[in-house]
Amino acid sequence: MLRLLQDYNCSPPSYSAVLAEKYHQSQQVQEIRESQELDTLLYSMRKSMQDTVLLISSYKYYYERLRLQNQFFLQKLQEDSETANLATTRKEVLIEVEQEYRQDADDSLNRMNESLEKLIEEAEQSLNTRISLSSNPDPIDSSLDNVRDDRQYKRRYLYTQWKLAITLRQLLNIMRERQQANNQLNQAVMDSELRLSTYSNNTTPNNRSGLSPAPKTLKTKPSLTSVFEHML
Questions:
Q1: Fewer Cβ within 10 Å of end Cβ, the chain: N or C?
Q2: Number of domains composing the chain
Q3: Is the pLDDT of residue 221 over 50?
Q4: pTM reported for the whole predicted model
């Protein structure tokens, strides 16, 4: 009975305390809502990361095929120049062009591969180091701090995705340039074969067999340019 009288006589909370409590609750609800929205976005970005890894694997396969094809064409040019007994200066120019082409292609694509792998590693690290609200032992006192930390990790991951998109655009431009260089190299091979065919017909057509075609495994395939453009 005495306890009931004490509870009845206790003073109600002040108006400022009620306003502070409501403000705290509204801020907490807003932070949690924003965190849930970022969770949804983060899920879609994680799915995008998986697709990106798959595309990069396909790109590496395409790059290896392109490298083998270029190696075959360059070897063909060298054999043609030796068979036709071209001038020494032309051989030196051919060797110089071959070295510059190989160095330029390998350096550009290797740098792009390293950059892509680094960005993927940063994105995966951002995902693995996120702070989850469910692991918070005291949601009343420190929930807002954990929500802010969670949002910070998500922003860092989204920033990594933004850098990854820029790098993929650079990769797309490099692939276009490499494709143009490869087309020029193919044209040089066809011109060389035409000159050698004319040379062979004018000299000893019976002592020289026809030029062998490119292996089937090295035939030009449609590039992944359209795939990357669709992704970006």
A1: N
A2: 1
A3: no
A4: 0.34
